Amino acid sequence: MNLPEANAAAELAAAIASGDRAAIAGALNLLDDRRPDARAKATALLAHLQRAQDHATGQLIGITGPPGAGKSTLSAALIRVWRQRGLRVAVLAVDPSSPISGGALLGDRVRMQTSADDDGVFVRSLSNRGQFGGLSAEVWPMSIVLLAGFDIVLIETVGVGQREVDIARLCDTTCYVAQPGSGDSVQFLKAGILEVPHILVVNKDDMGAVARRTLAELGAALTRTHPDGHWQVPVLATSAASGTGVEALADVMQQHYELLRSQQQLAARRRRYQSYWLHKRLQDEFGSFGIERLGGEKALLAELEAQDMNLFEQYAALRQRLCSAPSATGK
Amino acid sequence: MSQATVKRDHPWLMRTYSGHSSARASNELYRTNLSRGQTGLSVAFDLPTQTGYDSDHPLARGEVGKVGVPINHIGDMEALFDQIPLGQMNTSMTINATAPWLLALYIAVAERQGVDPAALQGTTQNDVLKEFLSRGTYIFPPQPSVRLTTDLITYTVQHIPKWNPTNICSYHLQEAGATPTQELAFALSTATAILDAVRDSGQIPAERFPAVVGRISFFVNAGIRFVEETCKLRAFGRMWDTLARERYGVSDPKQRLFRYGVQVNSLGLTESQPENNVQRIVLEMLAVTLSKNARARAIQLPAWNEALGLPRPWDQQWALRMQQVLALETDLLEYGDVLDGSPVIEAKVQELIDGALAEIAQVDAHGGMVACIDNGYVKRELVQSHTRRMRNIESGELQIVGVNCYQESAESPLTAGEESGIMKVDERAEREQIASLQAFRAQRDSTKVAQALQQLRSAAAGGSNIMPPSIECARAGVTTGEWSAVLREVFGEYRAPTGIDIAPLNLAGSDALEQVRARVRCTGEELGRPLRLLIGKPGLDGHSNGAEQIAVKGRDAGFEIVYEGIRLTPAQIARAAQEEGVHLIGLSVLSGSHLELVEDILSEMKTAGIADIPLVIGGIIPAEDARRLQAQGLKAVFTPKDIDMNVIMDTMVTIIRAANGLDPAA
User: Fold this and answer.
1) Spatial distance between the Cα atoms of B561 and B581, rounded to a whole number of angstroms
2) What does the alpha-carbon distance between residue A218 and residue A178 come to, in Å, rounded to a whole number?
3) Whole-angstrom distance, CA of residue B118 vs CA of residue B86
4) Among A251, B37, B260, B410, whose CB has the most other CB atoms within 10 angstroms?
5) Continuous segment of H or E residues that includes residue B278
6) For residue B169, how many C-alpha atoms fall within 13 Å in the half-sphere facing its CB?
7) Which residues of B fall within a CB distance of 8 Å from A35?
């Protein structure tokens, strides 16, 4: 990394940390940009952000669930609660893209904004770029930028029971919103397809008996103790429409975060998850062939998790290794 | 048979949908129109009035007096009907979310004129459900909206027996793309949703319920396929009769009559060779007059130049003359029903009924009309139909003379003159309206106003009928904005589903679409990330068809589309563009307030530091305004003439390329 580039990265990182909206938006554009020079700049920025960032600040929360479960309205209600508590909130809203055209309809940002002049809320929509039910490779670096500028970063994505693994391996706290009256969530949980979330929510409790039954079924299907240990998975009822239960949900999210911090888990988990995402990003950029070049998935993950080096500097080094390696044809 | 012995039917009510600038200017227009043989009034309100804002509200900027008359308080309403005796007038008001309020003002003015409100005749459109699907002047969520609708109905049935409290509108559904079958199905489903709500409100004793059914009227569209449209009206009559009898037990055939008014189709009116719209309008009028047993009660015709801008009084007079020629010169009114007994007509009517019943079953399966608005089912169906229509125009399967065939034309003398053949609203109108509003507020009794608003709040929250406290508010000098603000607090506001999340219709894609897709993809690769497009609908205008179609097409062409529906502020649009990192902003404005809105958006973009994002606009924008906008930096102005959306997509790619230093031609 040359000096002017490092200085530019430092400047941008400082602007992001100060909450400068233009800087934040610009950084997200940069992280989205696949051109090689942009990739290099993005890497410099991320390395800088991670160095500057106390590992245990900000909370990365994932909200997932089937379409129509009311995730967006619930997110909007949560944002109102967080804003009342004085917390700055950023949202990454992930929508599916068309497999044919690559195009996408991105929506719901208006619902989530309390008002146009509230600088404490920032919403970025993302298409999943063909990663069905999952998250595109840009989500992770974007979440790092947003964590630098906001107290809470919320990632909202449609989950259909199969690919929530992505969001569960990215966020500090994962919340699954079940559709009342649909047995799918229960079935997925029982079958072990659904990665166990930290919090289960049945939204739309104004639906009455149906929602209560779903609530009971989910409670019964859960072993209640999260595989992470020390966390009893709560099953909550909310009504985004009337606001009922939203404060309680925000409280539980806060409790989970505090638990992670008190057990010194946050940094280790982020390291583990970030290694997963780094691997995903490298795979995205260089393909399976590139991963093999770096010793294969298993060895690479172990290497990433074990080292105490800044992940992005490591990433830069790995990219360097791949880019400068003699090609397979031995030219 | 000699001419003298022929007994002609009475002609229908002839109206012109009008209102602009101010109550005083509109009053002059109404009196002129009446003196020229118009037999009823049809009041067009401006968008702030329709969406419950006073003329000096920030959201009203640029919209005051544009698409209709601004009515802020009883003083405005009184001026609007100055020297027009309300006891003898039949007045139709195109008003929905704020219908109880405008009717309350009308009643209060009648009282001041010394007219017994019980004698009033006319119509409040009062069909909010269709506003969620088309037109977009809703304010509150569907449930409280239905409650306000039913309050107005139960009040007038008891106190103003000759009033048509609601005009269930299939009109706007066709404008949003509905097929005749969908028009039938969705309008009748709306009617049953409203009637069920009135019945379940318990405000009307069971024995009076048939009278309520008898007061329900409809507002229907008539498109250019006039044979099918005639059949649609016959189908409407038959289905309504059955529904009234079977669902609501109405035994009196008179109370089961399908009573309807018409405005003929605006969707099919073209900007290219606009003189052709005259014959379109006449043929469409034929559809709703030909069959005596399914004839309209009232007709208003659009002006030939509607796709160009606001019509002038002369254009409206021409539209009125079309009706007069048909009613007075032709022999149409001398015969009984000329279509009865035709097997061709009968078969078509039956086909439409069967289709509509199947569609009604779908609506019921999705939870009924109110649920279908909230869950987006009906809106998606409409967007899909409209997308199909646009595709057929693009492919030439649907021929439109002067648009996708026979485009060559000599220069039209009609649009040549200095005013380019359209009406210009006086730019001083907004300022004058605001000044008069502020003067009105200063002179009223504020204690009385506060008390009246308090009563309104209790009724809204407590569930008693909204009309009596609204009439009290009208008398006390409450303003439109104040009345609406109280109800906004009690009921909350709503954003309707946009309906654009439909499956792509043309997966394979035509050659033209494939070419655009390739260009979108390549440009995205050159710029490092997929192309993103923000589609913004600023201002109060709720005509969202164009924005929706561009959103769907953009997705199909490979853009990542950010579209959030109607009524966004310039600040929201600029903020969204920044946060979403879009490559281009496309605005859609049809209300005539494009100059003010663009000015505001450019200034917000500058403040946000995103002045370099290219901005384009689509809408009903006169050529002179288009030149002004381009001089301000807009990269393209699209009008109804630009019918081929592949070309629009391609132009946007070219603009993005140019703005980012790429070869625009590549």
Assistant:
1) 11
2) 9
3) 11
4) B260
5) helix B276-287
6) 26
7) 528
Q: What is the pLDDT of residue A330?
A: 39
User: What is the pLDDT, as a whole number, of residue A109?
Assistant: 75
H or E element: which one contains B15? strand B13-15
Reply yes or no on whether B541 is catalytic: yes
- Kindly give the residue spans of alpha helices, DSSP state H, lying in B463-580: 467-476, 480-491, 511-526, 545-557, 570-580
Domain A1-52: which CATH number of 3.30.300, 3.40.50, 3.30.420, 1.20.5: 1.20.5
Q: Please report residues of B whose CB lies closer than 8 A to that of A103.
A: 520, 554-561
* CATH class, range B511-659: alpha beta
ipTM: 0.89
- The catalytically annotated residue of B232, B379, B537, B583 is B537
Q: Is 60 exceeded by the pLDDT of residue A56?
A: no
Q: Does domain A59-262 have CATH number 3.40.50.720?
A: no
Token couple for B59: 């959201």
pLDDT surpassing 90 at residue A321: no
Amino acid at B406: Y
Phi, psi of B420 (to 5 degrees): 55, 20
- What digits encode the pLDDT tens for the residues A63-73? 988 877 888 88
By the 8 A CB rule, do B1 and B334 touch? no
Q: Token match 């008898």: residue?
A: B214
Domain ranges of chain B: 11-415, 446-491, 511-659
> Is B543 a residue of the active site?
yes
Query: Hey, CA dihedral for B256, B257, B261, B264, is it positive or negative?
Result: positive
Architecture of domain B11-415: Alpha-Beta Barrel (3.20)
- For the cut 90, the answer to whether the pLDDT of residue B181 exceeds it is yes
> What per-residue string of b and e applies to A15-26 under the rule 16 or more CB within 10 Å gives b?
bbeeebbebbbb
Numbered residues of chain A with Cβ closer than 8 Å to any chain B Cβ: 21-22, 25, 28-29, 32-35, 38, 68, 97-98, 100-111, 113, 116-117, 122-125, 127, 129
Q: Mutate which of A16, A95, A98, A101 to test chain B, going by most B C-beta atoms within 10 A?
A: A101
Structure tokens at A132: 């069905």
- Kindly list the distances between the CA atom of residue B495 and the CA atoms of A109, B139, B381, B498, B576, in Å, as whole numbers in the listed order: 12, 8, 18, 9, 17
